[in-house]
Amino acid sequence: SPKHSSISEPTLCRSGQSRSSDREPETYSVNPESRGPFVALTIEGIERSIESFVDKCFGASTLGGPQGEMIESSINGGAKPEEVKSQMKEFGLFPLKVGKDRFCLKQAHARGACSVATGDDFPEIEHCRADCQFQAQLPSNLLDWEAFINRAVDFYGARDISLHEKIRKTDELLQYVRAWPQLRQKLEELLSANPSLKKWFS
Question: Which of 9, 55, 65, 147 shows its CA 20 to 30 Å from the CA of 101?
Answer without folding.
Answer: 9
